[in-house]
Amino acid sequence: AQLLRLTIGKLSDIGITVVAVTSDTTAQSVQMAKALGIHIDEDNMKYTFQHPSSSSQQIAYFFDSCHLVRLIRNAFQSFQSIQFSNGTAHWQHLVELVALEEQELSNMERIPRKLANLKNHVLKVNSAAQLFTESVASALECLLSLSLPPFQNCIGTIHFVRLINNLFDIFNSRNYYGKGLKGPLMLATFNKINQVLTEAKTIFVTLSDTSNNQIIKGKRKLGFLGFLLNAES
């Protein structure tokens, strides 16, 4: 934290203004954020810290979205089922979806082969990002419409996958000319982006495991709280 403050101060000396900091989600980074004064708590969220060279300026803090998606993917696999206000998301639906990947399914986007052995393999960051995609949500919707037994109650899973995908698109956007949620935050896109962030905040505070334990108060909360911190930032 002290090295970061020193670096920001040196940048300020040569005319570069730092407005935000992004870090990964390692234990060291979380401790650094706390040392800077960031509070990662749904009841007391503090998402900015004091600029070391300007008493009137605050610096926003972000966690990298790829790392947050990986944490959520691991939490999802661990819990197997996640309950929330809009339904229940089941990990088994994704396992069943991957099982169909080797078949030629008409009128459906193919699921990436990197998701093979999903049930027993801890995926890398890029594969975790592939898991929460619009194509996966659309594939589940298609299977639901076909009334296939393994997917008859997958509405909650679709909603959950699509929400995480939308959050990833918002915080992973890097192109000024990006379309939809992949576009930059500006007046023309604010309402659409804010709607997703508000939905995430509403849903994440209701997440629970099958024993009705609130997830954002448990050991696997960082992926969800990280997105809420990003939303505030």
From TrEMBL:
It comes from the Eukaryota. Residues 66-184 form the Transposable element P transposase-like GTP-binding insertion domain. Pfam families: TNP-like_GBD (PF21788). InterPro entries: TNP-like_GBD (IPR048366). Coiled coil: none annotated. This is THAP domain containing 9. It comes from Plecotus auritus. The lineage of its organism: Eukaryota, Metazoa, Chordata, Craniata, Vertebrata.
